[in-house]
Give the backbone structure.
Amino acid sequence: MRFFCIADRASSLGFKLAGVDTREVSVRSEALEALKVAVSSEDVGILLITQKAASFIEGELDELLYSKPLPLVLEIPSRGIDTKKPKTAGEVLKKAIGISI
């Protein structure tokens, strides 16, 4: 299993330097294409996606999260963007299965 990253331009460099296969996206069509590549590759186990990149394809990510066991999708903060408080694991579980922990 390997990592795959979909990131905005400002956030992608660190992942590339770490050797993670990274697709840089700046519009919805690029994000959709990168997601298609990640899902079609059988050896991708963890999909990292920055918040900015995820904002382009929220619906498709939700569908992926609830329909397939792999890849595990982890949304990470985008570099240089002041965002709201990140979701906790409990918030993700509540959204996914309706149970608070």
User: Anything to note?
Assistant: The chain has a mean pLDDT of 86.
